[in-house]
Write a structure and sequence with these properties.
GO terms for molecular function: ATP binding; serine-tRNA ligase activity. This is tRNA-synt_2 domain-containing protein. This protein is of the alpha+beta class. It has five helices and seven strands. Among the domains are: 67 residues, no CATH class; 50 residues, no CATH class. The strands form three sheets. Strands 5-7-6 form a three-stranded antiparallel beta sheet. A two-stranded antiparallel ribbon has the order 1-2. The protein is extended, with a radius of gyration of 23 Å. It starts with a helix and ends with a helix.
Length: 169
């Protein structure tokens, strides 16, 4: 029970506490869209035929979407998960162009972009409600010795939401 009490709870004061029968709809925006298609994975979406094409050079190497190997989804690297994929050639150029176009459009409408460092001081992580101490911590810790006299504790960030939530607080 003590671990439950450590969870941050910054909910709105009108949020009902208890069973779901106390919940009520205040506003519903629009209507739920009905989807009439089956969800597909990255292999089937990009193949066109909805059947993955095997690399013609080596039948046991990797599943690719086309013989030019512009989308690789298997055996991408040691340590990568089963959902890892990457683009090469024209698909990589198209992705880069789409990202640049989207960023330009967002900047034109007034969006502010935030760059988040990979390493944050421990107080920043704790201010966002993450526990940094204990056996089952949510973040990776390491010590950084500065001029041998001072010792600062830093943690690797897990999510962009950490710094964003601190900025909005």
């Amino acid at each position: 029970m003590s671990l439950v009490c450590e969870l941050p709870n910054f909910t709105h004061p009108l949020t009902p506490i208890g069973d779901s029968f106390k919940a009520r709809h205040i506003y519903i925006h629009g209507s739920k869209r009905e989807e009439r298609w089956k969800l597909l994975d990255v292999i089937n979406i990009t193949s066109g035929t909805h059947q993955p094409v095997i690399n013609h050079h080596n039948i046991n190497s990797s599943i690719t979407i086309n013989p030019e190997d512009h989308l690789r989804v298997k055996d991408t690297t040691i340590g990568a998960g089963h959902k890892t994929y990457y683009f090469t050639g024209p698909l990589a150029q198209l992705e880069s162009a789409l990202v640049a176009y989207t960023v330009d459009r967002l900047k034109a409408t007034g969006f502010e972009f935030v760059s988040v460092p990979d390493i944050l001081p421990e107080p920043v992580i704790r201010a966002c409600g993450f526990q940094t101490q204990g056996i089952r911590s949510q973040v990776k810790q390491f010590l950084h010795y500065f001029l041998v006299f001072c010792c600062y504790k830093y943690v690797l960030k897990c999510l962009l939401v950490l710094l964003t939530s601190l900025k909005l607080k």
